Amino acid sequence: MQNAKIHKNHFYVSAPLKNGIGRYVCQLQRVTLKFCKTRGDSKGIRDFIESYLVDYAKSNPGVVVYLKPRRHRPAMLTMEFLNGERHELSCCQFDGFTVGQFLNLYTKCSGRQESRLINVQYTNHPSIQGPWTPWTNRNPEMAVADLIHDKKWREMYNKAPSATEMVLEMFKQQQISNQIQIEEKQAE
Amino acid sequence: MSFIVRCILKESRRIQTITVHQQRNIKNWLAPTLKELYRRKEEYEYLHGPIPTPKRSAFIEWNFGSEIYAFGKRLGENFDDVLLRQAFTNSDYVRKILEDQEKLGLETSDLTKNSSNEELSKEGRELISQYVFGFLRHALKKLPEEAVKCIHDKLLADEMLSHISRSLGTKDIILTTEHEPDEKAYATVFCAIVGALSRSSNAERTGGFIRDFVLTQLAENSISDFYIPNKAWETLASLIPGVDARLANQEGQGTIMAAYRVAIFDSKKNFLGEGFGETVKVAREMAAVDVLNKVFEIDESCSPLPLGPTDCPKIEEIGLKMNNPNQSINEVVPNIVRLQ
C-alpha cells in the first residue's frame, strides 16, 4: 500500500449487495491466466493448467477462465471481480498447486482492495435501550411541576389560601392600616 | 507486501487502479515513467478530447457465450441460453444492427425487432412488482397499503434495480450502442433477466431470485427508513381518538442545540411513544412516527423479514397475497394494549 493511503483504506464488515442473506454469489467474475509456453517461470502455471484447471472450472462454473499464452512473457493471474476491481498476481516460479491455492483464495474474495478492518463487529442497531439523550441520566423530578408554590394551580385546585398566604395578607393589611394611621396623624 | 500501481491504460479516461500483489519494493524508474505517461495522456486529451474507457468486450480475451453461461451459473440458476442472450440485448443495439444490415443490403438474419429485451423486461418488471407486493403484504401484515406501495416503489426504482444489476456483473455483457449503459438500460436488463428466468424455470425459482436480490435490499436497513409517513401526527390523531402529545422535556432553548422531547399518550394516559426534535413541531412529528411504527409493527423491535433459506415464505403463500391488498391507512385499528 502507498504510505499515504494506508490509513484511509478502512472498512466496516459488509457484504456486496447483501451477499449471503439470500443466496451466495461468487464475487469473482473472470480470471485470465497469462503464461509463456517455454519460459521456466511459467512451469507451475502450465502444470496447473494440465492437472488442476479443468477441476477448478467444473467446481466454479460462475467464473470465466481465459488462457492467454504469450511468448517470453512472465506468468500472471488477472482476477476481475463483480465490483469492477482488477487484481493481478505474478505467478513466476510458482508451483502448480500453489497457483491453484491462490486461485481458490481469490474465488472467495469480494474484490475489495487490501484495507484495514475497523472492527470485527458491525451492527445497524448499536443501541438496544435507545441512544443517549440530554435527559437520560437526569433526575426525573426535573420534569415534575411544583404545584405547591404555583399560584395559578392553587387558584384552580385549592380555593382556600394557605397559611403562609393568610399571614402575608394579614401583614399587608397591617401595613396598609399603619400607613393610614400615619397619614391621619400627619393630617392633624 | 503489496501496493497499488496506478497504471494508466492507453485508452482509459480515468486512472484505473489495479492491485498488484507481492512486490517488496518500488523501482526507481516507476514514478518517472508514470509521470511521463500521465503528461502524454494529458497532452493528447487536450488536443483530441477525452479518451473513452475500453469496453471489456473489446478485449481479445472475451467469449460472449462463456460469459453468458457463467452469468447464469454464478446466480445459481438454469437459464435458457437464447432467452438470456435476448435479455442482454438492448433495443437500440438491435435497431443499429438492422440499420447497418439494411445499408449493406444484407437480408436480416436472426435478429428481428422482437429480439430485444423489451418484452422480457416488461414481463420481468410485472413479476417483480407482484412478488414484492405479495412478500411485503405477507411479511408485514399490519402495514397499510399506502406504505406497502411506497416501499414497493422505492425497491422498483431504476436507481435500485440498476445498482443490483451492476453488482451482478451485467456491465460488460450488456449489448448497447452507447459506450456505457445508462441507469435505465441496467434496470431494463435486470427485469429482462427475471423475465427470462420465469420462462426458463418455474415460479418458485423466479420468486426466490426476486427475494434474494430485490427484497434483501430491505434486510439490514430498518423498514421504517423506506417508509416515512407524510403527515404522521395527523394520521395518528385520526387513528387513535383522544391521542395527546405533551412536551416532556426541553433543553437549550434559544440556542442552535435546542432539543425538545415530546411524549404521546392516549385518552387513558397510557404512554404510547416519544420523539425528539429541534423544534416542538418536529419532535411531535417524530413521536407520531414512533407510535405509527409501533402500530404497523415496523419498529426496531419487530421481527426480521423472512429472507433466509429456512424461514422464507412459500410461493403459494405469496400468491395468496399478490391480489389481496392490505388494509388502507384509514381502516387501521391500532391495538393499544400492544403499544404500551
Task: Give a summary of the structure in a few sentences.
The complex is a heterodimer of chains A (188) and B (340). With 188 residues, chain A is α/β, with parallel strands linked by helices. Helix content of chain A is 32%, strand content 15%.
Overall geometry of chain A comes to rod-shaped
Quaternary organization: heterodimer
- In percent terms, what proportion of residues of chain B is strand? 5-15%
Helix content of chain A: 25-40%
CATH fold group of the largest domain in chain A:
Glutaredoxin
Distance between the termini of chain A: 106 Å
Mean pLDDT of chain B: 89
Distance between the termini of chain B: 58 Å
What is the CATH class of the largest domain in chain A?
Alpha Beta
Order of helices and strands of chain A: EEHHEEEHEHH
Give an overview in words.
The complex is a heterodimer of chains A (188) and B (340). Chain A is α/β, with parallel strands linked by helices and 188 residues long. Chain A has 2 domains: 3-117, Glutaredoxin (3-Layer(aba) Sandwich); 142-187. Chain A is built from 5 helices and 6 strands; from the N terminus they run E-E-H-H-E-E-E-H-E-H-H. Chain A has helices spanning 43-51, 53-59, 96-107, 151-157, 163-187, and strands at residues 10-11, 28-35, 64-69, 76-81, 86-90, 116-117. In chain A, the strands form 2 sheets. Chain A has a 4-stranded mixed sheet with strand order 3-2-4-5, covered by helices on one side. In chain A, strands 1-6 form a two-stranded parallel ribbon. In chain A, strand 4 and strand 5 form a beta hairpin. Chain A starts with 9 loop residues before the first strand and ends with a helix. The mean pLDDT of chain A is 90. Chain B is mainly alpha-helical and 340 residues long. Helices cover 49% and strands 9% of the residues of chain B. Chain B has helices spanning 30-48, 64-74, 81-88, 91-104, 118-139, 145-155, 158-167, 183-200, 203-213, 223-226, 232-239, 280-296, 315-322, 336-339; strands at 3-6, 17-20, 244-251, 259-265, 271-277. A 3-stranded antiparallel sheet of chain B has the order 3-4-5. Chain B has a two-stranded antiparallel ribbon with strand order 1-2. In chain B, strand 4 (259-265) and strand 5 form a beta hairpin. In chain B, helix 3 runs antiparallel to helix 8 (183-200), helix 5 packs across helix 9 (203-213) and helix 7 (158-167) packs across helix 8 (183-200). The longest helix of chain B has 22 residues, at 118-139. Residues 1-15 of chain B have low confidence and may be disordered. The interface between A and B is large, with 39 and 52 residues. Chain A: Residues 37-110 form the Ribosomal protein/NADH dehydrogenase domain. Chain A: Its main location: mitochondrion.
